[in-house]
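Weekly structure sync, notes
Attendees: PL (lead), two postdocs, one rotation student
Agenda item 3: pending single-chain targets
PL asked that the sequence for the first pending target be pasted directly into the notes so everyone works from the same version. It is reproduced below exactly as submitted, 126 residues in total.
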Amino acid sequence: MSRRIYKPFKPKEIEYIKTHIRDMTNREMADVLGRTVDAIRAKTYELKKKIGIPTERQSNPFPVTTTTRMLICRYYKDNLRKGMTEAAAKYNIACELSRAVASIEEILAECKANGEYEMYNKYGTF
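Predicted structure, written out during the meeting:
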């Protein structure tokens, strides 16, 4: 089994990848440039970080969905009814949902501002 040797990218290849990074797959670019898919994948990841294009690895594993907003609003009100302080209620929710307390505070502020907080707590708690 022969060992692969790293072949540095030429400026023309890098320019080609930058030009086609959004409209071609790694496989297509690898075929055109005569490179391995792994080499192109590594280079596109590096270039995406430099250019500021979100990579697959940077996607949020915990997006803020309607259900997330509802749970935060309901848990918050329920925790306050149980006698927790506001800070303790937010911390408790943050731990339960694997989020930062600042994220919980931001979502609660948005919900209170647009009326979702009252809507989600209209029918009581769990």
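Discussion points:
- The mean pLDDT is 86.
- The first helix runs from residue 11 to 20.
Action: rotation student to compare against the earlier draft before next sync.
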